[in-house]
Amino acid sequence: MKKVKVATVWLDGCSGCHMSFLDIDEAIAAVAQKIDLVYGPLVDAQEFPEDVDLVLVEGAVSSQEDLAKIQLIRERSKYLVALGDCAVTSNVPAMRNAFPVRKLLDRVYVEGAEQNPGVPADGVPKLLKRAVPVHEAVKVDLHVPGCPPAAGTILYVLSELLEGRMPDLSSKVRFG
Amino acid sequence: MPLHKVSIRIDGEYVEAREGQTILEVARAAGKYIPTLCYLAGVSPSGACRLCVVEVSGVGRLLPSCTTAVQDGMSVTTNSEKLARYRRMVLEFLLTERNHYCSVCVSNGHCELQSMAAKLGVTHVRYPYTYPALPVDVSHPRFVLDHNRCILCTRCVRVCDEVEGAHVWDIASRGIRSMLVSELNKPWGESKSCTSCGKCVQACPTGALAEKGWAVEEMTKSHENISRLAVKRGVRV
Predict the structure, then answer these.
(1) What value of ipTM does the predicted structure carry?
(2) Which residues of B touch A147 (CB under 8 A)?
(3) Does A175 reach chain B within 8 Å, measured CB to CB?
(4) How far is CA A101 from the centre of its chain?
(5) Nearest one of A48, A86, A45 to A70, comparing CA atoms
(6) Going along chain A, which residue ranges are E strands?
(7) Stretch B85-102: mean pLDDT
(8) pLDDT per residue over A104-136, tens digit each?
(9) Contact (CB<8Å) A98/B133
(10) Which of A125, A133, B26, B90 has the most CB atoms lying inside 10 A of its own CB?
């Protein structure tokens, strides 16, 4: 049987959703039979491959790099899942949204610096004006809220999608 | 005063009611479920949240069941695809209007807005978040008011006025700029009328009003005592 090409992505989040994914414990062995993990923090691939069947996206879209990444990911993926509150609601990364980026960076890197004050400019991606949920940047096929979503929820979503069914999340998930 | 009886239909079933009762009261007594957020047994209804909207035959718009009195011959629908859609929309608007970061909230796991969103199947918000810059009032020695988490349900306003009798709280301004204020927009800690009874905190459905000293997920509340107090004061619940 042809394996389903799965990728996972870590944008502006804490990696807690990836941790929760790994928390499905021994069930991962059964999942591994059916999938080919082609990209993500858990594997070595440097570039997001073409023709990915299913991608789980953790984190909000906060920088220009995030935005470019998620647009490419959307182009190359058939089914995109926003995994966890940062991807679904923008959550903690959005707590900076009420402040202008310039003021925010000055507060941290100039006012808050004990030595070498100055906003870093080289080699770091520019922040967007606001951190936004994934669906404000690209089309999302399924939202799985939770901070993080429970391991059981992630397993359920994955199992249903691998069987070609649409997971029914009503009353199974909550924000936070 | 004699109590006139009226009969209405709720989801097709005949139900007897007293004149002056609200659709919500009658529907609940008949075992029907209508979701609510701003409704609090024991204090007057306000119709603030719009979650309890129902369809009434012959009326072209949805009516809040908590503030609409029954009328003889009325035919009410409490659940339909249309109502579910509007109720979800109400919750989505509440979530976009302020900054509800459930994961870092004292009331995470004990919040009525959060559990209602889960119950009504809101897995994401289709409208852009507004990310307003809002203050947090920590001037009271025992309690904190976080405007980021306030849904303007006015339960605190009503319980303070009607049960405690202090009337510390009010809503200032209009529309999207509406804000909960203590006394005449003074810091809560400077309020002369506040008795620090904590009823507003217990009545609050979210983490907007909380006790100081709790971390994420630690603030649990109970508003049953408020309803019990109200009954003792002669309010029919």
Answers:
(1) 0.93
(2) 102-103
(3) yes
(4) 22
(5) A48
(6) 4-10, 35-39, 52-58, 61-63, 77-83, 127-132, 142-144
(7) 98
(8) 999 999 999 999 999 998 999 999 999 999 999
(9) yes
(10) A133
Who's near B14: CB < 8 A, 6+ residues apart?
A: B7, B8
Closest alpha carbon to A5 in A58, A48, A60: A48
Does residue A98 belong to the interface with chain B, where contact is any CB pair within 8 Å?
A: yes
Q: Which of B193, B209, B191 is nearest to B147 (CA)?
A: B209
Helix (H, G, I), strand (E, B) or coil at B116: helix
Query: CATH code at B59?
Result: 3.10.20.740
Please report, in angstroms and rounded to a whole number, the separation of the first and last CA atoms in chain A: 38
CA distance B21 to B72: 11
Q: What is the pTM of this model?
A: 0.95
Q: Looking at the 3D structure of chain B, how many domains does it have?
A: 2
Q: How far is A159 from chain B (nearest CA, A)?
A: 19
Q: Which domain range does residue B26 map to?
A: 5-79
CA-atom Rg of chain A in angstroms? 17
Query: Rounded distance, CA A25 to CA A23, Å?
Result: 5
CA dist., res. B133 & res. A100, Å (int): 11
A 10 A CB-CB count for B118 gives 21
CA–CA gap between residue B169 and residue A153 (Å, rounded):
41
State the fold for domain A4-94+128-162: Rossmann fold (3.40.50)
Same-domain status, B20 and B133: no
Please give the single-letter amino acid code of residue B122: V
Of B34, B54, B79, the residue at which a domain comes to its end is B79
